[in-house]
Amino acid sequence: MRFSRCVLAAVFSVVGASAASAQQLVNLGFETQNTGGRPSGWGMGGDGFELVADSTSPLAGRFSMRTRWIGPAAYTEVSRKFAVANQPFPVALAAGRKLRLSGYIRTEGIATGYAGFWMRVDGPNGAPSIAFDNMGTRGARGTTPWTRHVIELPVDSGAGAIYLGLLHPGDGTAWFDSITVEVFGEPMPRTVMSYTPPPRPAEDMSRLLTDVELAVPRDSVVVPEDSAYATWMRANARPIRSLGATDFSDLQFFKPLLNGKRIVQLGESGHGVAEFNLAKVRLIKYLHEEMGFDVMAFESSTFECDRARKNVASLSAFELMRACIFGVWHTEEVVPLFEYIKETQRTNRPLILAGFDEQTSSLTANARPGFLRSLISTIDTAYARHVYATDSVFLANRRPEYVSANKDRLVAFYDSLGAFIATHRRAIEAAHRDDPNAAMVGRQAAISMTYFVRQLAAGLNRDGTEIRDLGMANNLDFLLDELYPGKKVIVWAHNFHIQHRENTRATATDSSMLSTRTMGTWVAERHRRELYTIGLFMYRGNAAMNDRRPYPIARSRIGSFESILHQAPSRYAYVDFSRARRERGTEWMWNRITGLSWGTQPEQFVPRDEYDGVLFIDRVHPPRYR
Asked: Which of 4, 67, 288, 589 has a Cα at 20 to 30 A from 58?
């Protein structure tokens, strides 16, 4: 019983892909193979096991699936090793009914362990298993002829995923063939409701962690990565020893990498990740205290973040956060950054809060009409009233139908407003000596609205994205060239916006590699020599969507970006691409491989073309929202 329980626990880590991506089952008779001789369409692995299609004495057709223990030592239960193959089953086909898996197994010489089938039904949004069977007490043992075995499980209508396959935790040899899967039974009432992922485990954030504490829990069923890649990762990945400690000795390797850099971009493959927030807050403090970076620019409104900055003394850290950045970052993990920003205002090197998005991101946007009126009224009171009225109406009517119908008029209005402020800048500055940046910020707010209007009119598509991202790139230049000339700037944004995307642009004649042009392409084009871009990626766990709903991170495939990074020996690790030499162990950095945006959406890119380095988190959790 102890042995079957450990196999049950291990099989829970076999798969983690979203059930939404599950297709119909394929190759249940193992008749087709890939170039390595393994049955195609199956995810499989097993340290110490041979897994191949076998043409010797199949039950039916030309092939069966064979698993055999070939480890260097005798198999023991203590080893907890097993061979496994799996496929996802579409939940919609079985929800509210029962699912039956049947097939045939033949064995030879299984003295320890067994061979069997397994099936698992997961709860919604990454919840734990709600039904599971791995035949732990009734699997095939010893030497047996072809024998039919059956598993049946109920599938609650609230289920989130179904996985099934074959299993061989034991010595000897097993053959599998002629699998069938059937939905049967009368509809059943739903019993499983919503799921809240477990909170992030407690961790001492006040000190640097040891190698033992940082050790990565391995996926026992994953086929080993390319040995040269794994060896290089183990030797060269830098451990990040804390997500909160004020001892920055583990970050000192950044100093030569960032020498001469004025812009550091910090990305994230998804917004709703507690560990990303923690890691970036700590890195920002290090960059400010030891590397001379003085501006913290968020993927949030340029106008609203500047107005929050101006009121930093009168706002609490929580109020300061809400007055600037989008709600996706209103979390317990980000609040300490705003506490730090407030604390530094009492020093001779304050960390300056800024934003570069052309969109509205907070309720501070409601102050914009009055702010613009106050700038214009010193020059032309009638125009000031017109500006107030027009901007107020736009703020209240940011619906696509209104914006599309009024796009040309609104773009012309904000374009003229920006030009008016630029023309009368000196007079406006003289009238607002207590707010020396007011004229520049007001002009840029108007320019931002020309992009925002066109973005809304274009809609949620490639055109709308490119309009927004060009506006963000131009706003970042505004911070660099006009508002804070000479200062070093930290950028906080999604990976999507900061990727250089050089690979897709360099091969634009190949339509399969064309992609939306985003902010990072313009930033890299204009500032490449003074730019260092860090992507943040995750391997497993749960994150949250922008609406705060939790979701599971999809399973990474062998050869993928995350699978290679997972070979690092630390749970929190950093890999620099900018100084890597091209050799056998690093060739993947120059190859077009698959990574997961949001931890679920595959995208192909050349790592070294898109990022200068990557901060990798092995297991993630949703943030604690405020």
From this structure: 4
Neighbours of 490 (CB within 10 A): 22
Q: Please, how many CA atoms are within 13 Å of residue 116, restricted to the half-sphere of its CB?
A: 21
Strand pairing class (161-168; 83-89): antiparallel
Q: Are 479 and 295 in contact (CB under 8 A)?
A: yes
Q: Are strands 352-357 and 98-122 parallel, antiparallel or unpaired?
A: unpaired
Q: Which residue has the tokens 């914009």?
A: 368
Q: Rounded CA gap, 310 and 305, in Å?
A: 9
Positive or negative, the CA dihedral 342, 344, 350, 355 is: negative
Q: Which of 260, 259, 276 is nearest to 268 (CA)?
A: 276
Which tens digit of pLDDT belongs to each residue from 461-481?
A: 889 999 999 999 999 999 999
Per-residue pLDDT band for 277 (boundaries 50, 70, 90) equals very high
* Percentage with pLDDT > 90 across the chain: 75
Provide the token pair at 536.
């943040």
Q: Which of 258, 237, 259 is nearest to 586 (CA)?
A: 237
Residue at 161: amino acid letter: A
pLDDT score, position 45: 82
Question: Cα 17–198–45 angle (5° rounding)?
Answer: 30
Structure tokens at 288: 């400010």
Distance of alpha carbon 262 from alpha carbon 526, whole angstroms: 12
DSSP-assigned letter for residue 363: G
Using the structure block, give the residue that is written with the tokens 């007490």. Answer: 137
Pick from 253, 312, 326: nearest CA to 286: 253
Contacts of 369 (CB under 8 A, 6+ apart): 387, 388, 389, 391, 392, 395
Kindly state the DSSP code that residue 56 receives in the 8-state scheme: S
Q: According to the model, what pLDDT value does residue 7 have?
A: 45
Its sign, for the CA torsion 417, 422, 427, 428, is positive
User: What is the rounded distance in angstroms from the CA atom of residue 233 to the CA atom of residue 415?
Assistant: 51
What is the helix (H) or strand (E) element at residue 449, kind and residue range?
helix 438-458
Whole-number CA gyration radius for the chain = 28
Q: Where are the beta strands (DSSP E) in 5-90?
A: 43-45, 49-54, 64-69, 83-89
**Burial category of 436 from C-beta neighbours within 10 Å (exposed 0-12, middle 13-18, buried 19 and up):** exposed
Q: Are the C-beta atoms of residues 120 and 136 closer than 8 Å to each other?
A: no
Q: What is the DSSP string of 469-501?
A: HHHHHHHHHHIIIIISTT-EEEEE--HHHH---
575 vs 110: CA distance, rounded Å: 43
What is the token pair recorded at 386?
């017109």
If residue 451 lies in a helix (H) or strand (E), which one and from where to where?
Answer: helix 438-458
In contact, 200 and 145? CB cutoff 8 Å: no
Q: What are phi and psi of 278, to 5 degrees?
A: -60, -45
Q: How far, CA to CA in Å, does 473 sit from each of 208, 470, 518, 536?
A: 36, 5, 9, 20
Number of Cβ atoms within 10 Å of the Cβ of 49: 22
- The strand pair at 352-357 and 293-301 is best described as parallel
Query: What single string gives the DSSP state of each residue in 214-261?
Result: HB----TTSPPPPHHHHHHHHHHPEE---SS-S--GGGTTHHHHTTT-
Bridge partners of residue 615, in order along the sequence: 536, 574
pLDDT computed for residue 12 by the predictor: 37
CA atoms within a 13 Å half-sphere pointing along the CA-CB vector of 181:
23
Nearest-angstrom CA–CA distance, 119 and 100: 9
